[in-house]
Amino acid sequence: MSNIAAEPAVQVCQGRPDAGPVRELLPARAVPLGESTVVRRLLPTMGRRMVGAWCFVDHYGPDEIACEPGMQVPPHPHTGLQTVSWLLDGEVHHRDSLGSDALIRPGELGLMTAGGGIAHSEQSPDPHSPMLHGAQLWVALPEAERERVPSFEHHRDLPVLREPGAAATVLLGELAGARSPGQVHTALIGVDVTLERGADAVLPLEGDFEHAVLTVSGAPEVDGGELEPGSLCYLGTGRSTLRLRADAPSRLLLLGGIPFTEKIVMWWNFIARTGEEITAARDRWQAELAEEPAAMSAASAGPFRPGPFGVVPGFEGPALAAPPLPSTPLRARGRTR
């Protein structure tokens, strides 16, 4: 998924010392995405930029799209991160400049590692399911991996842990011995938890991780208080377990990881370490658009010819142009304001 804001804010992030267990509700803001999708952006937000290496959290839907085009995000670039696509309802057609062409469905992991540079598009297929509901998340790559060769993984079978009234699907990382096949480059966890009516479950946690919970449906009780749908609750560090209860069917995403101590600059769809790197990535993308506009937008782009970002074969329509850079310098600063 892309950040398609015409004037994206500068996001500068850095890990901060462990604060111990807390319970902090983080506000969402509505952001239009493409032609007919509005997302709730929960990270980055005022005062908190990351949870472990998770640095971007969008929750969208449930949206009725039977008579709508659904998600329509044209080709756009990424650097220095991994995108994690997770669907609860509907489908998303992923294409990228590696030649990947995958239809991602509920319960399947779409994991794209941008590394030094990749381009991709995301669309609801035609025809598509009448409902669209999901989450799009980014993971910041550490210094040693942020220029790695880009890749795409599509995993249809993920480990599921079950106990009476509850099921936990491990998207990324490991929970209670169940490990996701998705490749990660920092210690982190991503889990989709489904709770039946009357469920009372306890999840084991890594004490040196920081964690947050995103409620996607229902109103589960997390750490002693209910969480409304579309809310993100930051739980801090130092927890060995997390109790979850539900008076009605509910679903949530547990995100966590070792606090990310590197400073990063996040602007538009790029993650880097300096403003100069962001400017260079933008210039690379704009140069590709200028040099090969027909190839960037053709429905049949012909043989794959990779460049700094590369062509996304099969997408009908123009790629996204990068917005203007802000007038203020792009600098890596602290993670919190």
TrEMBL record:
Residues 191-287 form the Pirin C-terminal domain. Pfam families: Pirin, Pirin_C. Residues 40-139 form the Pirin N-terminal domain. It comes from the Bacteria. Residues 317-337 are annotated as: Disordered. Gene3D superfamilies: Jelly Rolls. Belongs to the pirin family. This is Pirin family protein. It comes from Pseudonocardia charpentierae. The lineage of its organism: Bacteria, Bacillati, Actinomycetota, Actinomycetes, Pseudonocardiales.
